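[agent] plan:
  1. take the single chain provided in the ticket
  2. run structure prediction with default settings
  3. attach structure tokens to the ticket
  4. add a short note for the reviewer (M.T.)
[agent] executing step 1
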Amino acid sequence: MTELPSTAKAVIIGGGIIGCSTAYHLAKLGWTDTVLLERKKLTSGTTFHAAGLVGQLRSNANITQLLGYSVDLYNKIEEETGLGTGWKMNGGLRLACNEERWTEVKRQATTAHSFGLEMELLTPKEAQDLWPLMDISDVIGAA
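[agent] step 2 finished; step 3 output follows
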């Protein structure tokens, strides 16, 4: 677009994940008079630096649910729009190298289950089987 419209129902400043998500959801609601302003390239700032880091578990149920909604959306948006996103759900590992951290990881697994998330407690060897390059000499457990 070379010329900006003189009016808009909504003007979104910033083309990161929040700005793009806001524009997407307004469009889903039927808004057609929306302008998104970005000074450079979409999702090239902070969003780009954190690309792929979508941890779903938080201590707050509402934020955990919001992140779950995001994952559901990322899983279906390519089919919906026909545009590839490169989204892949690879999972992650939480490691414990001392007893205090292991207690924390076990509590996190309990919290995850209460929010309906999958999180398995693993032995060091089971974690290494998932990531063979890892040195497990000081690992007590993982999830």
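[agent] step 4 note for reviewer: The chain has three domains: 8-51, 53-90, 92-143.
[agent] ticket updated
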